[in-house]
Amino acid sequence: MLSGRADCAHFERSNLTQFTDLGLAKPLLRALADEGYTTPTPIQAQAIPGVMEGRDLLGIAQTGTGKTAAFALPILHRLAENRKPAPRSSCRVLVLSPTRELATQIGESFKSYGKHLGVSVAVVFGGVKYGGQMKAMAPGVDVLVATPGRLLDHLQEKTINLTGVEVLVLDEADQMLDMGFILPIRRIVKFVPRQRQNLFFSATMPSEIEKLAGELLNPNPLKVSVTPAATTVERINQRVLFVEQTRKRALLAELFDDAGFKRVIVFTRTKRGADRVARSLEQVGVDAVAIHGDKSQGQRERALAQFKAGGVRALVATDIAARGIDIDAVSHVVQFELPNVPEAYVHRIGRTARAGADGSAVAFCADDERNLLKDIEKVTRQRIPSFDRRNDRQLGAATAAMPEPAGVKPERPAQPHRGEHKPQRNRNHAPAKTAAGHHRPEGGQPRHAEAGASGKPAFKGPSRGRGGGGDGGGRRAGGKSEVWSNR
């Protein structure tokens, strides 16, 4: 347990209110000014001074709190103060991220904040060919952001080495656990020098994550907690609508009649369900796109770009996107289906009310999901109010009697198709398991089945240029590698 490993020190929030008070290098302050940032968020104000001093950090924070800048800025300050080349095929900073979307956004943040420093940044994940990643890493880079499976493949094939790592960042550790990446992470750490600074971030602290933190962090790390584990953002107006399973699509269409639903993320449990919901919205005149693990990297990037630009009102997503999407001005999050894992509810609704804005979250709850709702309320330590949006009265299950919009056929209860989650009926609502007892993530593969995580590379060698695996969702070959170098 972490408490047996180290007595985590709590860093009291400083009175510092401006980035200019944090002692960051001038090129970083210029980049922040270019972006219009002047005041640090609570996690930034608490974490940046300690990390600049070289301390290890345990950060308990949800997405949307500004934690990427909380580690990127002091890391870039360190690189600015001690300029030296990274070893060939290696890096000075390694950031591990659970999904390709989040890895891409972290890479973009390092590139944006470090644009006046001349640092080099590379992003490595599955679903694209290896050649571009190998080429980008060959001379060595300052910052490498990677998903565990693809990085492990490169390590096994000796196309990347980690001998030059000075700082190791583990982001979204609890999602790493959910996706079965803990074993790959432990294997990757064996390639990293023992003398290093460690920055560890997680939204929640289940026992296995606490144990992993105890293994990675040096004694007496700085501990920063900006929100209690598994709680929801106070600025989010949450409601639950009780509705029959067969009426969910009709109710969703009716919600979009409200002009206030400007930029909406709709969450489903399965890939097939996401596609089905997106099509149903298109049929009633609501521009929508779906994003999930079966989409190619190019399709996912185009869908996100359309949504960010306001070209579509609805982005329908599975939980693979629950933490990887960082888009401001999301007006609403709709949980078309409640998640089997209650903590996922928190991460889903965290897509709204970002950057100080307010937001709304609506959850649909069918009769067979009531136990899931109870689990969510237990974990979040609050009762989610139910309402009838026609008059905002607390009516509970009476909202199931809402009239159905014309032209929309009732939906049959969703049937799980091959390779997807089956709704659980047991009391614990655990995800489906394989015969070997492994939880199946999106796509139906065992949690450890990301390329490289099982100990067997997903390809014969990088020189073949195949583009499978790497982050649990990239099975398609081809595409352009997401790497940046602005040395």
Highlighted features:
Rossmann fold; 2 domains; eight-stranded parallel β-sheet; six-stranded parallel β-sheet; 30% helix; 14% strand; globular
Report on this structure.
With 487 residues, the protein is α/β, with parallel strands linked by helices. It has two domains: 2-225, P-loop containing nucleotide triphosphate hydrolases (Rossmann fold, 3-Layer(aba) Sandwich), CATH 3.40.50; 236-401, Rossmann fold (3-Layer(aba) Sandwich), CATH 3.40.50.300. The protein has helices at 2-5, 26-35, 42-52, 67-81, 100-113, 131-137, 148-156, 173-178, 182-189, 207-216, 248-255, 271-283, 297-309, 342-349, 370-380; strands spanning 9-10, 57-60, 91-96, 121-124, 141-146, 167-170, 197-202, 222-225, 236-242, 264-267, 288-291, 314-317, 332-335, 359-365. Strand 11 (288-291), helix 13 and strand 12 form a beta-alpha-beta unit. It is globular.
**Pairing-aware structural class of the strands and helices?**
alpha/beta
> Any idea of the CATH class of the largest domain?
Alpha Beta
Find the count of extended strands (DSSP E, 2+ residues). 14
- Helix fraction? 25-40%
Shape: globular
Under CATH, the topology of the largest domain can be stated as: Rossmann fold
User: What is the rounded distance between the termini?
Assistant: 41 Å
Q: What is the residue-mean pLDDT, rounded to a whole number?
A: 78
Q: What's the arrangement of strands in the largest beta sheet?
A: 1-8-2-7-6-3-5-4
Low-confidence stretches: 1-16, 389-487
Rg value: 22 Å
